[in-house]
């Protein structure tokens, strides 16, 4: 019996340690210790906001214990005032302190929301390191597929699946879309998350100021393969990034529209693959839901609608552009397969809207700062020109 009693504290300590082990799963501090300047500023906002709220939480917790002990029934020395109901001084403290903290949190949120706008081009790569005027951001097109990620590098003419490689200390401009349902593009070490949606384009700016390998994933549930919708992120020295680009160009596999339609089909746990060439304007076709041959692009349909529409001749185009949730991508809707493919349109060109003017992010002050606005050019330049009649194609 004595041995059993002696063992009990040891067993209890072991069980306690095993109970605490699951808590170690959340010890990854990448959000508060990232490798990018934007993510680091966002982490600082979390720390400052938490500190401001603790200014109220900690005193309240301490005073709760103090009052429970000070005014317990057995303490005959405590002042007893059963008819007490008001104190002006106490009311001022109770209301003034939270109000001041709320004002500080509101000001901090307003400034951070504007200065860390994901659409705003970066003004620095790290504290005290402004972006040079001749430095061009690396543009990466991101497409959320079921259930994988496609990255297109228009400047380099390559693409990759489930692998994102970028040079360190160079601003990155992401143009993000989705092929089917909504997802959320998130690289915690780089910047905050932003949604990827079909038929729409969102933007995100970020930069790595440290080399290393990180993880990105979808932060929005999108179906059966969501749990494995992760991708590797490599922050490389410029020379190493050039070698990575060279390896991709040597893969010999092109990414054209037919290959994309096959890649778009739902699949899980896709391995990393690279493409040596990318068909021009593929991302624009993905955004405009017209990768399939013969399908009218969404911006063409909007141009036609702006001019009054085409009546029954365009009905099939409208039905085809409504994203088909009940059949596989690339299939035609039932019924008459004759429809208008295009109406006096010019060749598709990438839509590169002008960026907002960069704003210095340090120090974090936003007095008089105007909100970033995205200027979108019209889908076609000849919006007021008459449209010549076009016969339906068979």
From TrEMBL:
Gene3D superfamilies: 1.10.287.90, Cupredoxins - blue copper proteins (2.60.40.420). Residues 23-120 form the Cytochrome oxidase subunit II transmembrane region profile domain. One of its GO terms (biological process) is ATP synthesis coupled electron transport. The chain crosses the membrane at residues 12-32, 44-69, 90-111. The keyword Lipoprotein applies. It is a multi-pass membrane protein. Keywords: Cell membrane, Electron transport, Lipoprotein, Membrane, Oxidoreductase, Palmitate, Respiratory chain, Signal, Transmembrane, Transmembrane helix, Transport. The keyword DNA-binding does not apply. Residues 135-247 form the Cytochrome oxidase subunit II copper A binding domain. GO terms for cellular component: plasma membrane. Residues 370-394 are annotated as: Disordered. One of its GO terms (molecular function) is oxidoreductase activity, acting on diphenols and related substances as donors, oxygen as acceptor. It is found in: Cell membrane. InterPro entries: CcO_II (IPR045187), CcO_II-like_C (IPR002429), COX_ARM (IPR010514), Cupredoxin (IPR008972), CuRO_UO_II (IPR034227), Cyt_c_oxidase_su2_TM_dom (IPR011759), Cyt_c_oxidase_su2_TM_sf (IPR036257), Cyt_o_ubiquinol_oxidase_su2 (IPR006333). Belongs to the cytochrome c oxidase subunit 2 family. This is Ubiquinol oxidase polypeptide II.
């Amino acid at each position: 019996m004595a041995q059993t009693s002696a063992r009990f504290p040891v067993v209890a300590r072991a069980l306690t340690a095993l109970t605490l082990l699951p808590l170690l799963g959340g010890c990854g501090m990448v959000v508060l210790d990232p490798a990018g300047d934007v993510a680091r500023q966002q982490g600082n906002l979390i720390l400052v906001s938490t500190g401001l709220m603790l200014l109220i939480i900690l005193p309240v917790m301490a005073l709760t214990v103090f009052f429970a002990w000070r005014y317990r029934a057995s303490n005959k020395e405590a002042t007893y005032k059963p008819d007490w109901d008001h104190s002006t001084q106490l009311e001022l403290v109770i209301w003034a302190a939270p109000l001041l903290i709320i004002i500080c949190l509101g000001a901090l949120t307003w400034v951070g929301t504007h200065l860390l706008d994901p659409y705003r081009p970066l003004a620095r790569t790290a504290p005290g390191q402004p972006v040079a005027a001749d430095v061009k951001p690396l543009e990466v097109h991101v497409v959320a597929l079921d259930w994988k990620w496609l990255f297109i590098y228009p400047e380099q003419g390559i693409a990759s699946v489930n692998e994102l490689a970028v040079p360190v200390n160079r601003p990155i401009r992401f143009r993000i879309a989705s092929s089917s349902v909504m997802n959320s593009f998130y690289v915690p070490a780089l910047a905050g998350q932003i949604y990827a949606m079909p038929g729409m384009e969102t933007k995100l700016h970020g930069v790595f100021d440290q080399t290393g390998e990180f993880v990105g994933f979808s932060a929005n549930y999108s179906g059966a393969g969501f749990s494995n919708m992760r991708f590797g992120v490599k922050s490389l020295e410029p020379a190493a990034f050039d070698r990575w680009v060279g390896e991709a160009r040597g893969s010999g596999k092109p990414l054209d529209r037919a290959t994309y339609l096959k890649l778009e089909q739902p699949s899980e746990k896709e391995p990393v693959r690279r493409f040596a060439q990318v068909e021009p304007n593929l991302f624009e076709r993905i955004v405009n839901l017209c990768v399939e041959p013969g399908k009218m692009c969404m911006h063409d349909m909007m141009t036609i609608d702006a001019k009054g529409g085409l009546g029954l001749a365009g009905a099939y185009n409208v039905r085809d552009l409504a994203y088909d949730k009940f059949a596989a991508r690339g299939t035609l809707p039932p019924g008459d397969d004759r429809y208008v493919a295009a109406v006096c349109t010019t060749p598709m060109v990438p839509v590169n809207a002008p960026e907002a003017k960069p704003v210095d992010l340090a120090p974090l002050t936003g007095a008089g700062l105007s909100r970033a606005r995205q200027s979108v050019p019209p889908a076609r330049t000849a919006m007021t020109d008459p449209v010549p009649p076009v016969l339906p194609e068979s």
